[in-house]
């Protein structure tokens, strides 16, 4: 696929000032004027599952939607049982459900992380920004180009010990770098850091890492200071419903549940959970298709000489743009001229706008983005 000057044209109505108004990225709703122009935007920013849920799930959801809106949802413990049925966990007493994983992050930062914390960076902003806002001392250990954006288990543990912190967070895979540690490495980390007050393993993207994801959700409850955090919205391709859950020992779950509102998760989310419990095979098939898309995206980006492409084990790929080009300008030109929405990482701790996180999409969408990238890079080089 090639893009010519005739096919590249500015898109009216896109407000670039939105990027200056948030520490994350502008919402899809704000960029598309409350979804009025949703079909015109090519989204490579938000890492979603492009193949789930099936149409039959959405049809059933729409049929029952009036009742989910009218009546109260079930209790958190009932929703935990639904999550367990879907993901194959045996004990709902070890699971708590949140209004998205970010709600649980906030509660963990408030209730359990009472002291200083170490976070590898760059990372998801709620793990770096929120503890600072709560007055915690936040220490960092950095991913680096020299290590291909990989941080070993030994390096992480040593950084925690050197910093003298009482809490630590490990995103596995990491967002935005896509770095991954194996299951045995993470178990070793939990063993080495038993002395901490709290250790969180954020597995929000782990379902899109490998055919057999190296999750530790089945053993984390054996470690009294440890948590695993998961995002159902990302997995199921429905970020807007805000679905997340955490796993820990029953005592931790009971303590955290005392702080949550009784109905912290809405009835639409409960309805969806009941529907997807019957769709495990469809979800597994969708997950594996996303892995194929990620690998295709990785290969396609490697063919763009102006990009350094790092190994990725998530449903996105992390790249560095050559210093001869400006990352924010490239993002803006992709958005204005081609309606391609990508994420730069300049608003992250230890981040830079020369680094982009590009979400996996089906092959035709990737081909369109790569053609747009090549066109804009040619234009910038000729300027």
Task: Give a quick set of tags describing it.
seven-stranded mixed beta sheet, 2 domains, four-stranded antiparallel beta sheet, 13 strands, single chain, 383 residues, Aspartate Aminotransferase, domain 2, alpha/beta, 13 helices, Aspartate Aminotransferase, domain 1, globular
CATH topology of the largest domain: Aspartate Aminotransferase, domain 2
CATH homologous group name of the largest domain = Type I PLP-dependent aspartate aminotransferase-like (Major domain)
CATH class of the largest domain: Alpha Beta
The portion of residues assigned to helices is: 25-40%
Instruction: Name the overall outline.
Output: globular
The Cα radius of gyration reads: 21 Å
Number of DSSP E strands: 13
- Order of neighbouring strands in the sheet with most strands: 2-8-7-6-5-3-4
- What's the average pLDDT? 93
